[in-house]
């Protein structure tokens, strides 16, 4: 209960920091693992193996999207119910989320095992990369159930104010991955199969750590057998609320798959390898923003449920300031040290480095203001505005990026592929900023009307 009191009363700056810092640490550690994973693959298994992981990445994003569909949707609803002091309803949402996660896992594994070749070819796999990508993905699918449930627990534990536990779980998982990567890839020479095995073992340990929180009865939510029975209304609410995150991630996956195809067409394996290195850096520097987003969301959701609108606005404003400051700092570092950073994945003397530097400089052009889109979508999700969140999360990929990848490259070649990314980012950020401004004005006007009615009622009583 003290954790929930903090959500309601602690000063916004301290609260946002206390929630965001553990998430940021966890996400950065996880990103470091992903970067180290690609360093091991690129340096010890070869550029073709790194290209295979780049091909498999969109499929991994779809798997990630399905996990976050359930996790983000259920946690946002649970935050609101806890803000309303309705722990019974929160437990029903949690139980339904677990059941949905198990069913979804079984369906995904069966479908991908059945159509794996077709899916990987859709995302740009060729003769040299198809077998490697398949080997990696088959092992990942074997541990998908742990990934799914770990995601659900990661989000739901955070809604109860337990920001540190997900951090410890992700650190445990990431450190396990790094140690086993070194053993399996470098010492045993297992290549992409070793990297995949290290990943699922790490996910399993992270899952066990989070599960122990509930087994030790530390949660304020007490699950009952009937909570696991699916309820249509709860399922619908979880899916609608989580759909924004899901569609945004699926859109990214499809866009990256199409991007890989265009890179292959206009730049060959060098361009795809370059994208693998750029995407690794993006993952590393993007994770603190994701940590800030994860720290912000339960605060906004809880106080929205408690109808403390000033705290909702204050949290959002402060998160935007922090995100912009961090993104600007990273942007400057990328501009000053591109070869040094890309050299972690690519031999600096390789011809691929020239392609990678050009791509990196264009790819990150909108980085200083990208937080507007990330936090904006999360805000609408946290305040149960699922439709707005869904529209904003899919604009960049479906309305802007994919059409631009069709229009620009025929005239501009490989540069047109790279340029499509910041143009799509800029357009999506502009629309998200306008949506946030309109929502802010609407809520301010509503708050003023409610205050006026309350004063009028007091006057009549007097």
TrEMBL record:
Subcellular location: Cell membrane
Keywords: Antibiotic resistance, Cell membrane, Membrane, Transmembrane, Transmembrane helix, Transport
An annotated Gene Ontology molecular function: xenobiotic transmembrane transporter activity
Major localisation: membrane
PANTHER family in UniProt: MULTIDRUG EXPORT PROTEIN MEPA, SPORULATION PROTEIN YKVU
Membrane topology summary: Multi-pass membrane protein
Pfam families, alphabetized: MatE
Protein name: Multidrug export protein MepA
Regions that span the bilayer: 12-33, 49-72, 93-116, 136-155, 167-190, 196-216, 237-259, 271-292, 318-342, 362-382, 389-411, 417-438
Biological process per Gene Ontology, one example term: response to antibiotic
InterPro entries found in the cross-reference section: MATE_fam, MATE_MepA-like, MATE_MepA_subfamily, MdtK-like
GO terms for cellular component: plasma membrane
Family membership: Belongs to the multi antimicrobial extrusion (MATE) (TC 2.A.66.1) family. MepA subfamily.
């Amino acid at each position: 209960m003290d954790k929930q009191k903090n959500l309601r009363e602690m000063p916004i700056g301290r609260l946002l920091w206390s929630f965001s810092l553990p998430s940021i640490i966890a996400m950065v550690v996880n990103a470091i693992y992903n970067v180290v994973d690609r360093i091991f693959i690129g340096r010890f298994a070869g550029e073709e193996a790194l290209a295979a992981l780049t091909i498999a990445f969109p499929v991994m994003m779809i798997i990630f999207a399905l996990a976050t569909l359930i996790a983000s949707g259920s946690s946002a609803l649970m935050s609101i119910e806890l803000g309303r002091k309705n722990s019974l309803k929160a437990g029903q949402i949690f139980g339904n989320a677990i059941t949905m996660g198990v069913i979804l896992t079984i369906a995904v594994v069966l479908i991908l095992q059945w159509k794996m070749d077709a899916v990987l070819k859709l995302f740009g796999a060729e003769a040299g990369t198809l077998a490697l990508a398949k080997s990696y993905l088959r092992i990942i699918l074997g541990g998908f159930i742990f990934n799914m449930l770990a995601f659900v627990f990661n989000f739901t534990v955070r809604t109860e104010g337990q920001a540190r536990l997900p951090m410890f779980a992700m650190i445990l998982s990431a450190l396990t991955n790094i140690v086993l990567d070194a053993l399996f890839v470098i010492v045993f020479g297992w290549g992409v199969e070793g990297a995949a095995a290290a990943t699922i073992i790490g996910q399993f340990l992270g899952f066990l750590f989070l599960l122990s929180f509930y087994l030790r009865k530390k949660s304020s939510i007490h699950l009952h057998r009937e909570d696991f029975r699916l309820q249509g209304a709860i399922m619908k609410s979880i899916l609608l609320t989580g759909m924004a995150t899901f569609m945004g991630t699926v859109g990214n996956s499809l866009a990256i798959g199409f991007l890989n195809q265009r890179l292959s067409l206009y730049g060959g394996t060098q361009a795809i390898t370059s994208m693998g290195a750029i995407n690794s850096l993006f993952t590393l520097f993007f994770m603190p923003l994701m940590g800030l987003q994860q720290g912000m969301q339960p605060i906004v959701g809880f106080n929205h449920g408690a109808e403390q609108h000033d705290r909702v606005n204050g949290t959002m404003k402060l998160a935007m300031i922090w995100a912009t400051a961090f993104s600007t700092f990273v942007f400057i570092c990328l501009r000053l040290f591109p070869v040094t950073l890309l050299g972690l994945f690519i031999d600096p003397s390789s011809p691929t480095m020239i392609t990678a530097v050009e791509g990196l400089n264009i790819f990150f052009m909108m980085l200083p203001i990208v937080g507007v889109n990330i936090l904006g979508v999360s805000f609408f999700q946290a305040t149960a505005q699922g439709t707005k969140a869904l529209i904003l999360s899919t604009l960049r990929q479906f309305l802007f990026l994919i059409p631009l990848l069709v229009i620009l490259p025929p005239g501009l070649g490989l540069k047109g592929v790279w340029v499509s990314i910041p143009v799509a980012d800029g357009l999506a950020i502009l629309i998200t900023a306008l949506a946030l401004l309109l929502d802010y004005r609407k809520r301010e006007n509503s708050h003023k009307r409610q205050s006026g009615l309350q004063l009028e009622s007091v006057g009549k009583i007097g």
